[in-house]
């Protein structure tokens, strides 16, 4: 069992290049928006974590492009957490257009740190309780 969430976004004109394609850099913003809403769906918000003293810096990220998104497309960003979070949490993404065509895949890996000293920490139990139903029977 794992966590999965679908987020939709409509491509705005300002997000496209001269060719009419979604600029590659914009997908990172789409992924971030989808990740934030996925966490909200799990009952955990970035604000709540940060207010409790836990931050989530990005460790690594990547995108593999297969097909271009275009102006006014309605995109679905599928967010998955396939492994139980610990000190790190990895979000995997797939993007599809309104016709169900696969556009790209990507990931971001973040880690948990204490705000005061930026030392890595395990996901605190109060937050793990929100993810537990997705990873334990």
Structure description:
By secondary structure, the protein is an alpha+beta fold. The chain has a single domain (3-130), classed as Roll (Thiol Ester Dehydrase, Chain A), CATH 3.10.129.10. The protein contains 3 helices and 7 strands. It has helices at residues 26-41, 46-51, 125-135, and strands at 3-10, 54-55, 58-65, 74-81, 88-96, 102-111, 113-114. A 5-stranded antiparallel beta sheet has the order 1-4-5-6-3. A hairpin with a 5-residue loop joins β5 (88-96) and β6. The longest helix is centred in the first third of the chain and has 16 residues, at 26-41. The mean pLDDT is 93.
Q: Which key terms come to mind for this protein?
A:
alpha+beta; Thiol Ester Dehydrase, Chain A; two-stranded antiparallel ribbon; 137 residues; five-stranded antiparallel beta sheet
């Amino acid at each position: 069992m794992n966590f999965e969430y679908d987020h939709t976004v409509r491509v705005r004109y300002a997000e496209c290049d001269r060719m009419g394609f979604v600029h590659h850099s914009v997908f990172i913003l789409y992924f971030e928006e989808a990740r934030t809403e996925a966490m909200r769906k799990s009952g955990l918000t970035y604000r709540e974590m940060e207010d409790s003293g836990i931050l989530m810096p990005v460790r690594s990220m990547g995108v593999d492009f297969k097909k271009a998104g275009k102006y006014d497309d309605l995109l679905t960003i599928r967010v998955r957490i396939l492994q139980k979070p610990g000190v790190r949490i990895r979000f995997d993404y797939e993007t599809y257009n309104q016709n169900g065509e696969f556009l790209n895949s990507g990931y971001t890996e973040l880690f948990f740190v204490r705000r005061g000293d930026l030392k890595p920490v395990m996901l605190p139990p109060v937050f793990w309780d929100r993810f537990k139903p997705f990873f334990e029977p």
